[in-house]
Prior knowledge:
This protein is α/β, with parallel strands linked by helices. The chain has nine helices and eight strands. About 35% of the residues lie in helices and about 20% in strands.
Amino acid sequence: MIKKFKITYPCFTGPEKRRLYVYLPRGYNIYKAKHYPVLYMFDGQNVFFDDNATYGKSWGLGKYLNRTKTPLIVAAYECNCHADNGRLSEYSPFYYNPQGEWGGPYEPRAQETMEWFINVLKPFIDTRFRTLPDRQHTFISGSSMGGLMTLYALLMHNDVFSRGAALSPTLDIDIDQLCQMIQEAELTPDTVLYMDYGRREFDYEHWSRNNFVRAAQLLGSKDILLSTRLVPEGEHNEASWEKQLPFAIPTLMYNI
Length: 256
């Protein structure tokens, strides 16, 4: 079951209503005493339905969770869809000036985004659904810029999120600052991170191989539970990320 809501987000250009998709696991309305972990996701329009997806293809996450009977609530919030690429600002921890087709520069608003997730979205979910609201059962995930935000959430808000899945995270904004953030982060040993990258992405993002290896090595040195993958034939799109669900979701749910 997937419910849809409209929630006001305090966008930097003014408050606006965006869609929230909430997946409730099979049996949710039958086993009324049961409570569930929650996975928060970025780019919510791309998570469940092809009709809502930015490029016409979603992750198909609801179908996967139904098929595998995974006992998990998912809260996926729509991103900034402005023509001026406001998403790049809301999902960036660092000043970003890509220029070219992506425009810019973009001010970093990752912290504002996460404060809203923690102080508004999480309470909204916890008060309306049967969640396990503690850190141990609060996860986060995304791809591309959403993957970068997943890393940011685990590094900077490890007291709230215990587990994350970062698929093809964007690592070209400021890899030096990201690596410094990883080095300085205080992560508890029970932190779980799944992080992958598609091998085909290396063909057109030449920076990505070195940045992925560099970030993965530093994360590995933090004594957390880290799972990294180079995806055979993997690309930078929802169709490819959908194929990684059998790796990412079981990692998030391990021993839960």
